[in-house]
Write a structure and sequence with these properties.
alpha/beta; D-Maltodextrin-Binding Protein, domain 2; 2 domains
Length: 322
């Protein structure tokens, strides 16, 4: 029923858009209303693609909000599966929802993930006066008493924020993750308020959510969940440095229709790499608080496959999916 509903919505959206795009013009679908992260991805990458000469005409941006990205996904799969001039903004939320079957039976292998070229780094923070000084302290406290450390995050139970500390615990060999307390609230600021106020012992979220609180001294970051330390926040160690092989970032990237040729896929990968290498994109990241995170082409697709599998495993353990 849900899949048919999404397909019907997708068909309606396509009819409403009309034939406004020339056959040789690239189009980027932002699966949300203007102003959000997916809209940013389309508009910034689209503009830079044209500015640096990777496309011959400005990239058309189409906002297609609905079903948390499911409407756009259904449109691509059912109506534009072989459109080699189409790119679609994606992020960690896209793969989490696909892994948890939130798109009415749609699966990640129905499209091709072409690349990510920036990310909002995942973080785990505590109140400034917390006795937990590093991730090792946090893990040992939970191993000794799984209910002793409650986390607050801006996503629902089973969402991306919830997954971050669980990945650290699994990397540490702790598997009884259903006993770990998590409270989903309305955004990162509310999650930090819970932690600073002593209602939870830690907050799990993204770097962009904690910058002001770090500067005011209200919280301490135990770790940033990136491959390398984040420029401008070099005093925050990575989880990997502390012995936990976890990378969890809210990446900004693109997928393309699953039916396009390998040549077309590789061409988009090369164009996206050119954007990643450009001074224009480096400035856009600096202006918008993104950290370097570049995985393009087959390397990114393989990484996505691993992320999907891990998210499904965690989601089953939590009872989010069967």
């Amino acid at each position: 029923m849900k899949a048919r509903f999404l397909k019907a919505l997708a068909t309606s959206a396509v009819l409403g858009l009309g034939a406004t795009t020339a056959a040789t013009s690239a189009e980027c679908i932002a699966p949300a209303n203007p102003g959000g992260g997916w809209d940013f991805t389309c508009r910034q990458i689209g503009k830079i693609l044209f500015d640096i000469g990777q496309v011959d005409a400005p990239v058309q941006v189409t906002n297609m909000a609905g079903a948390g990205g499911g409407l756009a996904f259904s449109t691509v799969v059912n109506e534009r599966n072989d459109d080699a001039e189409l790119i679609v903004a994606a992020s960690s939320a896209t793969t989490t929802r696909l892994a948890q079957n939130a798109y009415g039976g749609a699966t990640a292998d129905q499209v091709r993930f072409v690349g990510a070229i920036g990310a909002d780094p995942g973080v785990i923070v505590v109140a400034a006066d917390s006795p937990l000084q590093n991730l090792g302290d946090m893990v040992e406290a939970i191993k000794a008493d799984p209910g002793s450390v409650a986390f607050a995050g801006g996503s629902a139970v089973g969402g991306f924020d919830h997954m971050k500390p669980l990945q650290v615990l699994l990397a540490a060999g702790f598997t009884d993750i259903t006993k770990v307390k998590y409270i989903g609230v309305d955004g990162g600021a509310d999650a930090i308020t819970q932690t600073v106020g002593g209602f939870t012992q830690a907050m799990t979220g993204d770097m962009s959510e904690i910058v002001g609180f770090l500067k005011s001294g209200e919280v301490r970051a135990l770790a940033v969940l990136t491959e390398e330390r984040v420029p401008g926040f070099e005093d925050i160690p990575t989880a990997r440095e502390q012995g936990f092989d976890v990378v969890a970032v809210n990446w900004r990237g693109l997928y393309v229709p699953g039916g396009i040729s390998d040549d077309a896929f590789n061409a988009w990968a090369a164009k996206l790499q050119a954007v990643a290498d450009s001074d224009e994109w480096k400035q856009a990241m600096a202006d918008n608080g993104l950290a370097p995170f570049t995985k393009v082409g087959g390397d990114f697709q393989n990484w996505i496959d691993g992320v999907i599998a891990q998210t499904q495993d965690l989601s089953r353990q939590l009872g989010v999916i069967q």
